[in-house]
Structures are given as C-alpha cells and as structure tokens.
Amino acid sequence: MFNPRNQSSGLGMPGFGLPGGPRRGGATGRIAPWRYLVFALVVSLGGLYAAPNLFPPDFALQISVDNSDRPVNHELLAELADRLEFEGIATIGTELAEAGGLIRVSNANDQLHAGAILQEHLNPLGEDRQFVVAFNLASTTPDWLRAIGAEPMTLGLDLKGGAHFLLQVDMEEALAKRLTDEVEKIKDMLREERIRYRSTDDAVQGNTLSVTFATPQLRDRAIEVIEDEFRQPDYLLETTEPGGRAGFVITVQDAKLREIESSAIEQNLTGLRNRINQLGVAEPLVQRLGRARIAIDLPGVQDSAEAKRKIDKFANLEFRLEAVANDRASEIEQWPYEGRIVDLNKRIILTGDHVVHAAQGRDPENGMPQVDIKLDSRGGEMFHEATAPNIGRRMAVIFIEHKSIVTTEIVDGERVEKLTSRADKRVISLATIRAALGYNFRITGLSVREAQELAFLLRAGALAAPMYIVEERTVGASLGEENIERGMIAVGIGFGLVLAFMLVYYKVFGLIANIALTLNLVILVAVMSVLEATLTLPGIAGIVLTVGMAVDANVLIFSRIREELKSNPPAQAIPAGYDRAFLTILDANITTLFVALILLTIGSGPIAGFAVTLSIGIITSMFTAIFGSRLLVHLIYGRARTEKVWI
C-alpha cells in the first residue's frame, strides 16, 4: 500500500486517442461513456461467441444412401437405433441431416463398435453397397447460438484424431498433357488455314513440341499462323531441319513451366476438395506443399480406408470418333473392345474436364446402370460441333484410370521403393450417334460399381495430373483426447500460477490484470471460433505464449506506475505509468506480430496453427491489457482525491 500526499491536479487520462495509447490532457472523470460501451460490447460478444465451446460434440454415425432405393428417414434411423440397443450400445438420439441421418452414441469405442454392426446390417456380403456408414461428430450447440452464427472452434488432426495423406503430383505428366493440348491446338489452327503437316507420335519431348512439313514454304506459312500465340517470353519458336525435313520447335520457357505447374496443382487441389467434401468429413484441410506436393488432413476419420480409396483413385474420360475409311493411318489408333479390335481416331473431341455434374442412374428401358452427364457451356458447344456432322457414326468413350505403382530398386546397395503412376485406358462404350448431342447425355455399358465410381470421379472434377500417396498416417481419437487433456492441463497450470502471482504481488492491480487476462482468453477463443480457425496442439502453445505476453504488458504498466508513485500522487502516477509503458508494449507486440504473420505466410501445418493463435492472441491481449485494464483501473481509482492504491 502506498500513501502519497494529496494533490488536486486530477487524474489525467491520456492514452485514449488510441485504445490505450497516449494523448495529452484529460482528467479523471472525463472518460467518454462510449469507451465503456465499446468494451462491454466486445466482452459480451466475446462471451457469446465463445460459449459454443462449452458444448462438446457427440460421437455419431452418419448414414447416407449409396445404391439403395430405400431413403434415409426416421423409420430407418429408429430401426438402426433399436439394432444398436439390442447389441448393447446405448444411443443418445437420432436426427435427419442434409447428408442423410445421424445416430449419436456415448463415446469413441461405442462409435467404432456401432459402425461395424451397421455396416454388416446395411451392406450384406456379396451385394452392392447400399448405404455409406461414416464416423462423424454431431454438434450439441444450442439452436439459438447457431442461429447467430456461433459455432465451436474446429479441432485439428492432432487434437481430434483422423487421417493424414501426403500426395506427390506427377509434374512430368502434367507438362506432357498440357503440351499435347498445345500440339492439338496448333494442328487445329493449321487445318483452318489448310496447311498440311506431318504427324508424329513424338511431337512432345520434355518441354519442347515439334511439327514438321513437306516443304520450307509450308513451314514458313505455319509459323506466320501460330507465331502470335506462341511467342516470347512464354515460348521460344525456332526453325529446324530434322532428317532433312523442314519444321519448327517450340520450347516452353521456365516462367511458363512454373505457370503450368501452379495451374496443375490448383486444379488438383480443387478436384481433391470436391472429392473430400463428398466424404462428409468435417473441416478437412487440403493445402499445397512446395512445388509438387499436396497435404490432406481429415480430422475425425478413424477408418481411413474409404477416404484413401476415394483420394487415391484418379480417372478421366475421353470421347473419340470411330475411324472411317478416308482417315489417314497416322491418325488412327487400335483399341480392344469386347473381344475385338476397333479403330479410333486419335483426335480427342471432349474430355471429362468439361463435366459439371454426373449422377448414377438406371436405363429406363432395360434397367441397366448408366451415368447421366451434364457439360459446361463450352463442353456442350464442342460436343454439339463434333457430333452434329457425324450422325450415324460411332463414338467411343475411353475410361482412363491412374494407378499407383510401387517398384523396388537397388540404389547405392540399398533397397529403395519408387512410387510411380500408370494410366490404364480402356474403351467402356462404343455407340452410334443417333442425334446431335449437347449439354446432357448418358453413358451406358457399365457395371454398377463402375457407374458409381465414374459418377463420383466426374462430379469431383478432372485432375490436371496424376498423383500418388507418398505418406500416410492415422492419428487415433484416443491420442487426440490425450493431447487435448495435456494441453488443457498446461494452459490451466500456467494460467493459475500467473493469476496467483499477479494477485499476491500486485494486489488490487493484480486482480484487475487477472480479470483482463481472463477476458483476453474468452475473446481469443471467440475470435478463433468466428474466423473458423483450426485449433492444433501448437495452437495451444500459442495460447500459453499469449497468456505470458498479456501478463508481461501488465507487469510493464504496473512497474511504471510504481515508479511514478514514488514522486507523484495516484492522480498523476497511474496515467503516467500507462502512457510511458504504452510505446514499449506496442513495439514489442508489433514486432512479435510481424514474426507471427511471416510464419503464417510461409509456414504450414503445425507452424501455421501456432502462428494463427499467436497473431490473434497478440491483438486481443493488446486490447485487454491496455484498453480494458485501464478502464477497470479508472472504475476503482478514478476519483481525483484518491490517496491509497493497492499495488
């Protein structure tokens, strides 16, 4: 306790030009009421949007239709709940959701056991799968909180458990596919100008593509046609004389190569996100790592087999016309189909890249499986242009599936596994074009399983390049619970020790700091919940660091106030202490914030989780430690004639 002499100068409150920052002038009772209103509003909203985290989700099983005529309704869910009760598994409740139905159970063990029982009950052996049984977590947040957009924080893979995959994108295949498309583009341009060229099967070599002609004159005319499309700085166009024949070579420059790689990664990211969204996984993480890798985290997925099957399956379609008598031999390929060989034109008239929707169905005439397809506007135009003049001619649908291949090699005397991909292509349909096709059509001649897979892959979107899994691991739910428990213990112990120290050492001011510190955590949790930030184990470390930084700010302020009290009354010492500590606190926090933002920009995974929490925590701690605590101090010691302060 300090008892300085009484002076009537009044407690100046500079520092409210900014939230807590210094300004000149002001007296004890002249704090604008709106500052209290702002603080009360922030604290109220923080408490409101942090509240959903007090309602942990229930373990649940999600039931959705796969190939069954029976819908997921209340009757089916009641039947399944009775079956689980009969097997000794207590259910909390059932409900219908957009993706099907949910059956809530008590814990993770019951969830695993119930999943096996429902799989056996809904999908008998030897039959096509009728229903998908997926593990999920069902929200218990009250409806009135959800109505205002309040949801709990998302837990990361290390806290929630789940599956992690690391995929390698085959960039060589992506480049080859892109350059093959460019070759076809050049050929189309030359056909329009009626310039004859010589077709070769090796037009694409690495990052170059080449075309040859019968005479130099034809080559020069061709260069005039394409040079506007293939010029510097993206391409280098040079004339050549391979084997004494006139031709040209187009070399793709490094900047264009990086653009192609980036485009391939982005397209694959989009396709993977679409696939994972159809798995019903809550809050998945799909992000790029480096130049050619993609990381996938699927929180809450205890059985990764189904997710892996969907992720590791890459397929596309090609539509080609059957060859006719006047087609050149160089433009014809032979394909096996139903025990015979058919001749197809090499030119691809359409690929699955233009599919916007695909659904499994049944042929109304014979009940056989089919896939109903809808194309985008450009795809519909291309398909119409290709089929309108070819009515009566047959068109083939080629299914392309990329499979991961593991080969073992001896490198420096050690066995090394090398992962590559192989494209398996087969003709799945060869049908006569009865009418000009447009945006909607169907593919028949498939088995039930093939129709399911094809519809799923086409809905998910085509991939720019094949990928294969190079790393896979599963984090169990029990490990996640243990991480949460240990993290919360660490936060609790650190928080409790800090509260006790501040209360003992700084007395009333310590109590104010403790209130500000508690509000800081509430607002931090609320902001992370509103921003839908993912809380990870490093994120919990960021919270602990935030607690330390918030206390550090209060320690600096209170130390300055103590120094000022040696020569000034409380009316002057308290605002002077806040003002003189403000710039030091601001500099320290801004420097740390810059570092956190850099980590967030260039980091990923655990580093990003730590940076997100730290960035938000720095801002909230500045608000509560300076702006909030100063208002609380004013409420207690804001009278001009204050003589005693407990610090």
> What's the end-to-end separation, in Å?
6 Å
Provide the helix percentage. 40-55%
Which percent band covers the strand fraction?
Answer: 15-25%
Largest sheet: 4 strands, antiparallel
Q: Summarize model confidence as the mean pLDDT.
A: 78
Spans of at least 5 consecutive residues with low confidence: 1-20, 22-29
Radius of gyration: 34 Å
Secondary-structure content class: alpha+beta
Write structural notes for this entry.
- Strand 7 and strand 8 (208-213) form a beta hairpin.
- The strands form seven sheets. Strands 2-3-1-4 form a four-stranded antiparallel β-sheet, with helices on one face.
- The radius of gyration is 34 Å and the shape is globular.
- The chain starts with 32 loop residues before the first helix and ends in a 10-residue tail after the last helix.
- Helix 8 (254-277) packs across helix 11, helix 12 packs across helix 13 (537-565) and helix 13 (537-565) packs parallel to helix 15.
- The longest helix has 54 residues, at 477-530.
- The chain has helices spanning 33-50, 74-86, 108-122, 143-147, 157-160, 171-192, 216-226, 254-277, 305-311, 377-387, 448-460, 477-530, 537-565, 570-602, 606-637, and strands at 58-65, 91-97, 100-105, 131-138, 154-155, 162-169, 204-205, 208-213, 235-240, 246-252, 285-289, 293-299, 314-321, 332-337, 340-345, 350-351, 355-362, 369-375, 394-411, 414-432, 440-443, 467-475, 534-535.
- The model is unreliable at 1-20 and 22-29 (pLDDT under 50).
- The chain is of the alpha+beta class and 647 residues long.
